[in-house]
Amino acid sequence: MRVDVKPELFLWACERAGRSIDSLAQQQSFRKLPVWVSGEERPTFKQLEKFAQATYTPFGYFFLPKPPEESVPIPDLRTVGNQYMGHPSPDLLDIMYICQQRQEWYRDFARSMGEKPLPFVGSESLESDAAEVARNIRQALGFNLEERRGMPTWTEALRRFIQQADSFGIMVMVSGIVGSNTRRPLDPQEFRGFALADPLAPLVFINGKDTKAAQMFTLAHELAHIWLGETALSDVGPVTMPSNKVEVWCNQVAAELLVPLSALREAYENGMPLREELDRLARRFKVSTLVILRRLHDAGKLTRDELWQAYNEELDRLRAMPKGSGGDFYLTLPARVSRRFARALVVSTLEGQTLHRDAFRLLGFHKHATFRELGRELGYQLEVVVF
What are the extents of the domains in the chain? Predict the structure, then answer.
């Protein structure tokens, strides 16, 4: 069975996926792609299905009269002023849809458990003092500066930060890939994170392909969005100067949450070389040196030009550092989907409230053995036989 497809849809799908006609045509399944594009031949139904899978394109799109105008399904605050940022990648769209599905499931689960709306979601406004909001968040999460100071590394501090937010009621998901597909890495140049504000199921997603240094600030920034009650897609860093007033406010809260200005001024040692002081203060506060640079500027210790020069040098140094491995699947999966979400889904499935196939879809795998191993990692000794 041959299928009629507008040639421009093939071109659009390739561009959307960041693939070229020539590179795809080198694969046996798509060697006739050039003649499909020219309209000389039509693909079979099966060939079109494979092409849709290869370009991560919803199959039904190929029956449209022209390429659709796609946009992210939440407010996009990555733009500078009114400048258009370009089409979202299929990886970004798919990870957002996955997180929205997880949030919808957890919202229904929370309602079924009789959970009450979380009072901190939307409790602040843009008129709220950023420093005071940061103190409120720090106190709510148990974000103790002295505890962080005693941790061996700031990577451990980030892990603790995620645990505190997750335990407080916010699903924090950290992943560098779409679902469990290692062939679909997320691009930190496209986005760093997003927040899905909801009174029953607040969710924060952090791009795990970004540096650990950037992830710390992204989490703090997205938490500010939750307290503001604003769902948004973000692409900000410690020294980013966004034009959007929401992003400006969230950046201020994030910086104060991680490194209170009063504590920085007290710890700062005049006369020390900047390189040494950056490392010392980063170890003390267990944050990245990029955050320390931002706070030194806020404290009047660096001019704007000095900040940018030091920031670019430090960013190059961090990017050159070797990246760690992905680690054990069963240890990293709860971090990818949020330990809070994973526990709820495992319990609901074992109690028969959620179908195994739905649980597997939300978690991103297909095997019962994987589900049992995940349950054990979460503290459930699952000795069950699933038929």
Answer: 7-63, 90-320, 329-377
